[in-house]
Each structure stands twice: as C-alpha cells, then as structure tokens.
What we know:
Blueprint: H1 9-34, H2 39-64, H3 81-92, H4 101-120, E1 140-145, E2 162-167, E3 178-182, E4 202-206, E5 218-220, E6 225-227, E7 234-236, E8 242-245, E9 254-255, E10 257-259, E11 265-268
Antiparallel strand pairs: 1-2, 1-11, 2-3, 3-4, 4-9, 5-6, 6-7, 7-8, 10-11
Helix pairs in contact: 1-2, 1-4, 2-4
Amino acid sequence: MSDRSSPPDRAVAATAGMLIASMVMAVALGVTYWTGGQTQLEGLFAGLSLAFLGIGLALWARYLLPHGPYVEKRPPLGEGEAETDALVSDLEREGEMARRPVLIRLVILAGVALTGALASSLRSLGPKPGTAALHTPWRTRRRAVTADGRPVLAAEVPLDGLVTIFPEHDTGGAQGQAVLIRVPSDQLELPHGRAGWAPDGLIAYSKICTHAGCPVGLYQSDSHTLLCPCHQSVFDVLSGANPVTGPAAWPLPQLPIEIDDQGVVRSTGDFSSPVGPGWWKEGP
Length: 284
C-alpha cells in the first residue's frame, strides 16, 4: 500500500505548475484589460486562469491530501505519563496542509491574482448614472433660440404657427429641443398649476416623443394636435399634450415660458417632467 503522506515530487510539481499558470493567466488578463482591452483575449485568459486553478486544486486533493476513512484500534487510555505524552504528541502533530507551505502560498497568490484581475474590470461599468438624464439645459430666464442661435420673438409666432426652439447656448443638444406653438388662449385646458405657462397663447412642449423618442414636429392646426411620424402617436396641445391615439402612454413634458420686456420668449424653469420615452415610469 502506498504511503500518501509522502507523495511523489511530480505531483507537487504538477500542482505548483498549475497554480503558477493560473497566476500568469490572471496577470495576462489584467495587462490586456489595462492596455486597451480585447474581448476575445480577456475571455481566453480568464477561462484559462480558472481552469488551471481548478486543475491545481484537483491535483492537490487527489495526490497530496490524505484519503480515508482510517480506523485505528486503540486500547483504553491509561493514566500513566507515557500515555499522556503520546496523546499530546498526536494532538500537536502538524497536518498534511501545514507541511506544504509553498503550495498554500501559491493557492493564495493565484486566488488574489485572479480576483484582482476580474475586479479591475468593474471599472468598465462606468460611473453611477446619477440624475443628469432627468434634467435639460432649460433654466429660469433662459432665452429660447432657433437652430441658428437667433432669439425667438413672441410676435414672430403667428396663430397656429410652430417653431422649434432650443435653450440658448445649447442649440446642438437633443434633450432641450421643444416646439413652440401659438393657439387660442381661451381654448386652453392645461393641468392644474400651469395657467401661467402659456402667455398670449404661446405654449411649448418637448419635441421628443414619450413612446420611442422620435421627434414630434407635425402640427395639425384644425385639431390642435401634434403628430409623431414614427408610430403615429397624437397629442392634444390644448390639454397639456395628453396622448389621444397611438402607442404613446404619457403626455409630452411642457416647458414653462414667459415673454420678457423685449418680447423674447424665455423659460421659467425646466420641463414639467423628464423628457424622452416613458417606459421606465410606473404609470401614465
């Protein structure tokens, strides 16, 4: 019967080799990631590192750990000094793991290297999204301008006329674009608290559809509705841009506006709600 307490040197060497290979693959994974990254190589190195670590642990368990069960018949322990010394010696005897400190260190180093390489990839998740997507560049007293940066004068918007406006200094942004429409002020039925948001019948809504984010720019003056050309959602301008037909389930956010002493249209704050598709909301 073979003595497993003294395993062949080749088993120790094979186990150590697998653990070292696992560390090398983990280091290669980290280097590849931090030098620009390549998905295929990163996946290969991660898989090989795990495979070598698993093989090394399997070899250790198969060839370097004692196997049992072992049963040893013992006579009743006496109370003599010799029996007591023998018991203490058995309890203090070092186990098989303690006789191989090099392999233990290699296992720890391989685990640390692999864990560090995988943990470093968490950097790719980026920063927390925060609340930036919930706001647009519109602020109190921000002038409304056209795509070429020209301030929008209220007098230049005729009845049932439509102008696409942007917040000043952000004409290239998508989040802040809005449609400015003049409608008969006596026909407006806006939600509670918005009576002053449409001076002289001028009313502004986000141009981004709440269904799929398409630009809403088709105005039908006979029905006072805005039409999204992508999926034919229709919004009632007079009642706060509530959807009346189509797949959109949420109204277009309204922009509170005012007319300054020079007749320029200005915002008095941000939109009434976050702009864009409303699929993440709890309900209409």
